Amino acid sequence: MGKFSSGMNGLAGLVFLFLAGWGADEVCAKETAAKPQKKTYQNPLLDVRLADPTVIRHNGLFYLYATGDVRGGGYRYWTSADLVSWTRGEVVFSRPRSWAPDVWQDPVSGTFYLYYTAQSSLNPEWQVVGVADSNSPKGPFVNPQDLFENAIDAHLFRDDDGRLYLYYVQFPGFRITVQPMSAPRTPSGPSKVVLEPQEDWEKKHGAVTEGPWMLKHNGVYYLLYSGSHAAYPDYAVGYAAADNPMGPFRRAVHNPIIRRSEDVFGPGHGCVIRDDAGNWWHLYHQKQTSRENDFARFLCLDRLWFDADGNLHGAASRGVRLPAPIVERHGG
């Protein structure tokens, strides 16, 4: 009886341990399943030839506009809930030789404004910067109004005090220029050249400073721009900082902050947006190959960050899985 009791005790112990172990495994499995997995991404974002992107967020959805993918010239929109996976939308604006769009929503009226670069109607050899509007980010953008002849790459910036500034590139000389605006369609007062090709990296393949994008951080204005020729692998990104949106701007001593590497060619001409954790992200393009005088490009996404001294830094990746932007789901 004693031996039998001892055996039963041992069997009961084994059963207990088995059930306890199964229960622990079940708990671990449930915890693993319940724990959110960190999302990752990899460049290129899309298997489509696109360049010069701009992105806005509206009702929890991101809208992307870029150069390319429109036969005959113009722009279409793309949508994403997370800045990583994009869905192709409809054409929102058509005009020959269009590139480098910029879209901005007026927080007062709710109107969406498209700042376009397109073929000039006055001189077919020129490009023109202009503006069109829509009541939806899906367009169509109508009422086109040409603003500046022999110019490209417009970007509208609204300061904290509500004042508007339009940055663009004026020819000849690839001069980045700022124009105060009394309204989204209305220039006010004289324009001012704030940057033009000067540094060696900006003149590696032609003297170029283009693709301006303004961001403000801790009261400082950071003007991102691209230098050298966009069709060459040494195209790169730098910035200049100022205490006023009209300048004067001081180039960063560590320019270019984003440049070519062993597997990255011609990174440049992008926009900047923050995720829901406050991280800064750079949506831009890279060249597909190191081939010179070639405009085959694709879209990429990488982090930007500030160091303790307020210096801006960036990186360019390709074919490497990285943590994705932190984006909360919103309705709308």
Residue stretches low in confidence (pLDDT < 50, at least 5 long) are 1-34
The first-to-last residue Cα distance is 73 Å
**DSSP strand tally:** 23
- How confident is the prediction overall: mean pLDDT? 91
Q: Total domains, how many? A: 2
Helix content: under 10%
Radius of gyration: 26 Å
| Percentage beta strand | over 45%
Instruction: Name the CATH homologous superfamily of the largest domain.
Output: Glycosyl hydrolase domain, family 43
From the spread of the alpha carbons, the general shape counts as: globular
In N-to-C order, the SSE pattern is HEEEEEEEEEEEEEEEEEEEEEEE
Q: Give the helix/strand class.
A: mainly beta
**Count of alpha/pi helices:** 1
For the biggest sheet, the summary is: 5 strands, antiparallel
List the helices and strands and how they pair.
Blueprint: H1 2-34, E1 40-41, E2 51-58, E3 61-67, E4 74-80, E5 87-94, E6 99-105, E7 112-119, E8 127-134, E9 142-149, E10 151-158, E11 164-170, E12 175-183, E13 186-187, E14 192-195, E15 209-217, E16 220-227, E17 236-242, E18 250-251, E19 265-274, E20 280-287, E21 297-306, E22 312-314, E23 322-323
Antiparallel strand pairs: 1-23, 2-3, 3-4, 4-5, 6-7, 7-8, 8-9, 10-11, 11-12, 12-13, 12-14, 15-16, 16-17, 17-18, 19-20, 20-21, 21-22
Question: Would you give an account of this structure?
Answer:
With 332 residues, the chain is mainly beta. It folds into two domains: 1-35; 40-323, Tachylectin-2, Chain A, CATH 2.115.10. The protein has one helix at residues 2-34, and strands at residues 40-41, 51-58, 61-67, 74-80, 87-94, 99-105, 112-119, 127-134, 142-149, 151-158, 164-170, 175-183, 186-187, 192-195, 209-217, 220-227, 236-242, 250-251, 265-274, 280-287, 297-306, 312-314, 322-323. Strands 10, 11, 12, 13 and 14 form a five-stranded antiparallel sheet that branches. A four-stranded antiparallel sheet has the order 2-3-4-5, with no helix packed on it. The N and C termini lie far apart (73 Å). The model is unreliable at 1-34 (pLDDT under 50).
